[in-house]
Every structure is written in structure tokens, then in C-alpha cells.
Amino acid sequence: MAGRIEDYALIGDMQTAALVCRDGTVDWLCLPRFDSHAIFAGLLGTEEHGFWRLGPAVPAGAEPPTANRRTYRGDSLILDSEWDTPRGTVRVTDFMPPRDGAPQVIRIVEGVSGRVPMRSALRMRFSYGRITPWVHKIDGRTVAVAGPDSVWFDTPVDTYGKDLTTYCDFTVAPGERVAFTISWQPSHKEPPGLPEPEQSLEAAEEFWKEWVAHCTYHGPYREAVVRSLITLKALTYAPTGGIVAAPTTSLPEHIGGVRNWDYRYTWLRDAAITLSSLLRTGYREEARAWREWLLRAVAGDPENLQIMYGIAGERELGEAELDWLPGYENSAPVRVGNGAANQLQLDVYGEVTEALHLAHMTGLSRNDYASLLQLKLIHYLEDHWDEPDEGIWEVRGPRRHFVHSKVMAWVAVDRTIKLIESGDVDGPVDKWRELRDDIHRDVCEKGYDKERNTFTQSYGSQELDASLLLIPQMGFLPPDDKRVIGTIEAIQRELSTPDGFILRYPTAGDDAGVDGLAGDEGAFLACSFWMADDLAMIGRVDEARRLFEKLLSLRNDLGLLAEEWDPKLQRQVGNFPQAFSHVPLIDTALRLTASGAYGG
């Protein structure tokens, strides 16, 4: 049975990632890319769908023990887990070396004290647990083959097969180190080279040490910020610069519910705000790589801008359901692909333009096509800003005139006007100033409820939406505007959970609500960080700090956050770890640090 979402650690090589549970089980791994088929899919099913457990041996039928301690090794993505057993203490180091050849997962067992019996149980199941590979030996190496894929298992320990699983039983004494490696290779190619675990470990440590040294943030929340930056780096597909929203699919937003989506793609919105955080913390190269990815993905067709793409810029992300997987804690269906790719979400134009504007303002090397793209996006918005859309939350109900979408259309026009005013490009600035005023007036007239003194989710709606918290952050209205303050206070009243976190919008329980789906969901962590930002902006800095530090307490023991927090079950829910949670964590830390709103 899979662990709780917060029981997992992330390891990765900037091309794919694995999740390692507290009991030493790898329950999720897609090879060779984030969006490839999983060879371990136990996270979304059972052990029959693939896993790799490495830890102290236990009697048959007994539950494997969880590690007594675990931590990342310094500021890295190298995981150390320790078990205290009646026979001694043992440490397992898990990591994926930054890729130079075949993708690898390396696990090194080290004896700390006593003599500890250990077991490795490796059950590979390709195609998300559906296909049992052919496992055999070649020159003393174990290889699993199915169709185009092969996975090679290397260890100095003797292996044996039982119940379609590869086992290793051994004992480790103090100072002894035993390594285990799996390597992926296309099945038609020669075997991958023999792994060098100790050298790979040294190289991985050096990589992360050097990368973290570029961080320019040295404020009081540095530990949380650096861990979030490392997580964002791990979610970046190094060959192209694309950034996945999360390395998982179908971890539910409501346990047992149907709100289960594939997040192993690059959302323009998520990637744009990630670029902002990277630029403001010293990571210009990652920001430049994302901008180049964007320009390739959009190509010469900004009129057909998608809200998301594949990590190499693919456009076809057809959605399907994997009916052989029961889902995480029976939360079905399990989905791969994402049908929302073809939605109209006008806010994306604003997020992309804001990201390009920030890159320009912070001195990222000039790219003439990036400026041309901005102009093309505004030409599109001229004719389409006043249309209904699916909005930031990708509703699967009818299109509406979402206020946030209109605000972000205003942002797109405003930032492009600023680009023209800087003298770097030419454009119909007077015409677009009039367009900017028209959008602003439209939102204030149709998206604002005078009686309640709050903006609403959509034109003519009585509902609230946490995306309205971005109004002052985007500069649409100043923080001291009574309408802004009224909206913040209304969201606090109507969208707060009992423990003070923020819901995206009201859900309708068993009935289909504005998003076209039945069921509820947890507090959306990004929205809760936005609330902390807004509270700081309107001068309630102590309250902002308390909320921020309360949000930090929701992170798991390794500093990782999923998409949402279930206030009833008191646990993390949604895909994990989630870029859209870690980015606003960084942004709020920067804002609070600048305001001095912290204790010490």
C-alpha cells in the first residue's frame, strides 16, 4: 500500500524523478522522461504495479519498518535515510545523478553500527504497471525488457527471482557499503555502461553545491527558499528548459474523488511564475532556458497559444484513463495526458507577458523574437479579451467571463505598453493605452459587487475566487484601494478553512459546481501564500508572517509541498511536489523579508 503523500521524498536528474517512501520503497518512476510510462506505479495501485523496496529485512508478511530519520544531504537532492533496528543502525542513500548517459537510480547501503540483515525487492512493471517484462541475465547483469524499453539492475550482491520479483538478501556491517543501480536504455541498443556509484555520488554532491551557490537570497527563510529552488530545478527538463508542474499524475485533490489530473507537462502559467522566482534569486540561466523553450513552443503561431505543452514543446497531450490502476487510495480514474491543453484561458497571455517583461527589466540578454511575441499576443487579445473562457482553474463547465482572466489581459497590455515606452520596440501605443483603459473599466463595472465591496469570480456571479488576490500584486489596483481591501477581507471570510488556509473557490460537494465536477477539494496552497502576500501589502504584516509560517509548517519533513492541504484529514493532497506551491513560497518569503515582517 502506498504511503501518505507527505511520506515521500523526491529524487531526480533534471529529466525525470522518483518518489521514495519512508519505508525505503520507490513507488513512482517514469523512464526516461517525466512524461514517459512508469516502471514503478505502486503509488497509483498496489505492489503488483511495480515498486523497489530497500531496507532492513523483516519476517514474511510483516510491514516494512519506516526510517527513524531521513534528510537531504545539505542543500542537495541526495536523500539519506537511517533505520535503527535491534541488530544495529543502517543508512540508505538514494539519488539520481545528473544525467551523463543512461538515466540511473542509485541506492547505496551503509552499515552504521551492528550487523543489519537487509533486503532489496525489485518488481518492475512497464507501461504503468500493465506489462510484466522479460527478466534475465546477460554477462552477470540482470535486465528487464519489454518492447522498446530495457532496465538494467547492477549490484555486487547475489540476486534471485521469486513471484516475478528480483530479490537480494545480505547483511551489512559497520563501514561496509553496498550499491544498487538501475539504468534505463532503449532495448535495441547495447547495454549501458557499468555504473560507478561512488563517483556518481561525489559528482552529484558537487553539482548541487555549485548550483545552490548561485542563490542570491540570504534572508531569514533561506532554508525553505533554497529547498523550494532545488525542487524547481528538479522539475526542470534540462535538455529543453521546460518545467513540469509536478512529476506525478492523478494524485487526488480529494481522497477517493475524481479530481485527478496529469501534471507532468509544462503549464505556461506555472512556468512563467517559476521564471519570476528564478530571476529574483539569481538563476538567470534557467530563466533564459525557459524563455527559449517558450519561443520554440509557441513558434510562429501565438494566435493558437496553448495553456500547456509537453516538456519538449509537444502540442498533442490527449487525455486517457488507465482502468487497470485503482488509483491512489482508490481515487479513480487515473489519467494520463491532459485534455485541458485545448482550453481557452486568457490569463495565460498575461502571465507570459509578465514573465517576458520581468526578464527584460532584469537585464536578461535581449531576444528580439521575445519582444515580437509580446506584440503578437496583444494583437490577439485586442479581438478576444472580452470573450468568456475556462479561466485559471481550467473549469470543465461552461465558459464564463472570469475576472482574473480579464485582469491578466489588462496585465498583458500594460506590460507591452511599458515595453514600447522603453523604446525597445514600436507599436500602436495610443491605441493600446485606450485598450488598457477599456479592460480596466470593464472589470471594475462588471466584476465588482458594490454592495459587498468585493470583486467576484466572474461577471454577474456572487461567488468569490482566490485568484482575485492577484489584483494588487499585478498592479491592477493599488493595495490601499477600498475594493482591494474589501476583496481580501471577503475571501478571508468566505473561502478560509477552519485553520485559516484558502480555498480556490466554493465547490458543490456531490453536485457539479462552476468547475463542472462533483466533489470537494482541499485548501489550495498557492492561494494561501497569495493571501499572505496581500496581507503584507495592505500593512497587516504580522498577520501575513503568521500565515506564512503556518504554511511552512505544512511542508513534510523534507520541505516538500503538494498542491493542496486537506483540512479535514490534516494531510497533503494533489500532485507532489508541486511547482505552483513552491514558487509562491519563494515569492512570499522575498516579500516578507523586504518588509522586515519576521521574527528575528
TrEMBL record:
Keywords: Carbohydrate metabolism, Glycosidase, Hydrolase
EC supergroup of this enzyme: hydrolase
Cofactor section: phosphate
Gene3D superfamilies per the UniProt record, alphabetical: 1.50.10.10
Keyword Hydrolase attributed: yes
Domain GH15-like as annotated: residue spans: 219-589
EC code(s) of this entry: 3.2.1.28
InterPro entries hit by this protein: 6-hairpin_glycosidase_sf, 6hp_glycosidase-like_sf, GH15-like, Trehalase-like_N
Reaction(s) catalysed (UniProt annotation): alpha,alpha-trehalose + H2O = alpha-D-glucose + beta-D-glucose
Pfam families: Glyco_hydro_15, TREH_N
Name this protein carries in UniProt: Trehalase
Organism: Streptomyces himalayensis subsp. himalayensis
Lineage: Bacteria, Bacillati, Actinomycetota, Actinomycetes, Kitasatosporales
